[in-house]
Amino acid sequence: MKTYVFRNADNSVYVEYLVDYIGDAHNFTVMQIRGLDEAEKIYGFVFRELTNTLSAFKTFATDNNLILEDRTNDELTGEVSATTLVVATASLPEGVTSDAEVTEVTIPAEEGVKESTTITLPSTAGATQGDYFTYENAAGVKYAAWLDIDADGTAPTGAEYVAATNKIEVDIVTAETDAQVAAKVKAAIEADGSFAAADLTITDNVDGTLTLDQDNIGVTTDPVPHDASDSGAGSVTILVDTEGVDSTLDGTYWTLNSDDTEYYVWNNVDGADNDPAVGGKTGIEVAMSGAASANTVATATAAAIDAVEDFTSGVPGAAVITVINADKGVAVDAADVDAGVSVEVTEQGTDAVAYSQTLTSSGGNGTKTWSIDSGALPDALSLNSASGAITGTPTVADTFEFTVKVEDSFTSATKALSILITS
Question: Is beta strand 381-383 parallel, antiparallel or unpaired with respect to 86-87?
Answer without folding.
Answer: unpaired
